[in-house]
Amino acid sequence: MSFYPPLDVKVITPKLELHGATDDLLMQLLPIVREGVVGRQSDPFDDPMSLYEDNPVREWKWLQAIWRGRGNVRPESWRLYFVVLLDKQAVGMQDLIGVNFDTFKTVTSFSWLAPGVRQQGLGREMRAAILHLAFEGLGAAEAGSDAFFDNVASNRVSAALGYQPNGSDWATRRGQPAMLNRWRLTRDVWTLNRRSDIELIDVEACKPLLHIT
C-alpha cells in the first residue's frame, strides 16, 4: 500500500487493467512518449498538450503535469491517472477527471494509447473501465466527453458506450481553431448497460482524499 491512495487503485477487465500511475509505471511509458503518440491522423488533443512538444521537453512536461495533478485535489476538481496494462505491458494512459464533482457529481476522461496497439478495441475497453470506476466506485451522476469532429475513434467510442450528443464547442490544437463534439452519459443510461465483469480494487481508501463521502 502506498501513502497516496489513488496509486493503489486498480480497474480490471477481461482485456486489460488500469493501475494507478506510479512513477515506476510512468517510467515504463517513457519510451512510448519519447517516440511520440500523435500519428499522421488529425491532431487529437487540444491545447495545451505536452504530447505535442519536441523531445526531451515532451517527456519533462508530461511527467510534470502528472505530478502537479496528483497534488491538485479539491472537492470540486481532481484528476486520477492510470496506466493501461495489456498482458502486463504498459501501453497507454486513461485519466478520470472530476468536474464540479462536489456539486454535480460530473466527470470527464482523457486517454491515449501507443500507436502499435490501436484499432484493437482497447479504447472502448479503457473507457468502459474508467466509467465503471466513476459510476460504480465513486458515485458519479454524469460523464462527459469531448472530441474533435475528425477524431473518429473517440467519437465512435462515445456513441458505442451510450453517450448522447451534447452540442459542440471550439478549441485550439497547435494554435489552430477546430470544432469539438460534446457528449453526455447519465448514470441512468450507463446502468442500462452496466457490465458485471469489471473489478474495482482499493477504491474506498481513495474516497477521503477526493472528499467523497
TrEMBL record:
Signal peptide: none
InterPro entries linked to this entry: Acyl_CoA_acyltransferase, GNAT_dom
The keyword Chloroplast is annotated on this UniProt entry: no
Domain of life of the native organism: Bacteria
Domain N-acetyltransferase: residue ranges: 37-186
Pfam families, A to Z: Acetyltransf_3
Annotated keywords: Transferase
Gene3D superfamilies: 3.40.630.30
GO MF annotation list: acyltransferase activity, transferring groups other than amino-acyl groups
Protein's UniProt name: GNAT family N-acetyltransferase
Taxonomic lineage of the native organism: Bacteria, Thermotogati, Deinococcota, Deinococci, Deinococcales
